[in-house]
Write a structure and sequence with these properties.
about 375 residues; alpha/beta; 3 domains; 12 strands; binds 1,4-dihydronicotinamide adenine dinucleotide
């Protein structure tokens, strides 16, 4: 029996290509791993009547660890994001998104080493919405007005932003524990508490309380307003260490952070709960590149590095990371996105699998 069994969800769009590149690289390290392959997303709707069949969740519950490619959320069909549903169903309350510079990506900065710790289960992502023009929206609007809480235009759609003590507490604790375990110096809570007093304000209050509990940990704490954070991230990306944020700001700032390190093709991620962990890149399914063997699999491969570390296979993880570094530093066998940022043209770039071959050669 393999030492590790990992659920593999290839996803759709560029997902199958980049996950193939990733599994080839991981297997080439010699790690004893077996993939339990399951499908989710709109392609399985007809077969199972749901984009997230039970057996997918069962597989992850059994193996505890999964790695996935991106899954498209079709616009205008009834179902909500499979990615969000997965995080909710398995209570994967942390979305960990490290952003670190790797020379050779052509990024504007070369000294970035920050970690985004994004709350993954509540906030505007909770999916509690009331469609414009419905009876429910009308009732809610009337109820809000009857409470004297304010007026809402009758032709409004409404999305709720719940933020709880429970959700805030565990994510900020995660950020501190992560900082301690990884030799990090500072945790910054990012919010808009000056305006959103009862949601972000609560998040900030709880963050301060948790920081008090970690006062002797040696990890510094500060808080920052989200808009100012965006500006300072661009002006002084080297300032930042561990950032902990409510769901939506975490989502937006991780794309910003990806931009600082060379683009979405470079940014890995992990969804972590008390029991299960699901690894996936920050980016989506990039439909326009589907089946073209063009997408950059680095974010998926670096997500596998996070997974290998999680599985206790740190040596294999380091080897993969160093191989990726070597290929990017050399700059010969890189995908179109990296070639373009480096030279202004995609000429001379290689495909997804050829890039994986180059990584495998340097393991
Ligand atoms: P996206 O991240 O898929 O792509 C935006 C653009 O970024 C692409 O057009 C491409 O230019 C570039 N890009 C992304 N990944 C790349 C890679 N590996 N290599 C090279 N270039 C890359 O974002 P978009 O277009 O907003 O979303 C497409 C679909 O993906 C949507 O249905 C969305 O809901 C879904 N999505 C899924 C996620 C997940 O599975 N966790 C996360 C984000 C989006």
């Amino acid at each position: 029996m393999a030492k590790h069994t990992v659920t593999l969800i290839p996803g759709d769009g560029i997902g199958p290509e980049i996950t193939t590149a990733m599994t080839r690289v991981v297997e080439a390290t010699g790690v004893d791993i077996e993939w339990e392959r399951v499908e989710a997303g709109s392609d399985v709707m007809d077969k199972y009547g749901t984009p997230l069949p039970d057996h997918v969740l069962e597989s992850i519950r059994k193996n505890k660890v999964a790695i996935k490619g991106p899954i498209t959320t079709p616009v205008g069909t009834g179902f909500r994001s499979v990615n969000v549903a997965l995080r909710k169903a398995l209570d994967l309350y942390t979305n960990l998104r490290p952003a670190f510079s790797i020379p050779g990506t052509g990024a504007r900065y070369d000294d970035i080493d920050l970690v985004i710790v994004r709350e993954n289960t509540e906030d505007l992502y909770a999916g509690i919405e009331f469609e414009q023009g419905t009876e429910d929206a009308r009732e809610l609007i009337e109820w809000v007005e009857s409470k004297g809480a304010g007026t809402i235009r009758p032709d409004s759609g409404i999305s709720l932003k719940p933020i709880s003590i429970t959700g805030s507490r565990r994510i900020v604790k995660f950020a501190f524990d992560y900082a301690i375990a990884n030799g990090r110096k500072k945790v910054t809570a990012v919010h808009k508490a000056n305006i959103l007093k009862h949601s972000d304000g609560l998040f900030l209050k709880v963050a301060r309380e948790v920081a008090e509990e970690y006062a002797d940990s040696g990890v510094e704490f500060e808080d920052y307003i989200v808009d100012a954070t965006c500006m300072q991230l661009v002006l002084h990306p080297e300032w930042w260490d561990v950032l902990v944020l409510p769901n939506l700001y975490g989502d937006i700032l991780s794309d910003l952070a990806a931009g600082l390190i060379g683009g979405l093709g470079m940014a890995p991620g992990a969804n972590i709960g008390a029991e299960y962990a699901v690894f996936e890149p920050v980016h989506g399914s990039a439909p326009k590149y589907t089946g073209k063997d063009m997408a950059n699999p680095t974010a998926e491969i670096l997500s596998a590095v996070l997974m290998l570390n999680h599985l206790g296979e740190r040596e294999a993880g380091d080897r993969v990371l160093n191989a990726v570094r070597a290929v990017l530093a050399e700059g010969e066998h890189v995908t179109y996105d990296i070639k373009r940022t480096n030279t202004g043209s995609t000429e001379g770039s290689v495909g997804t699998q050829a890039y994986a071959d180059a990584v495998i050669e340097r393991l």
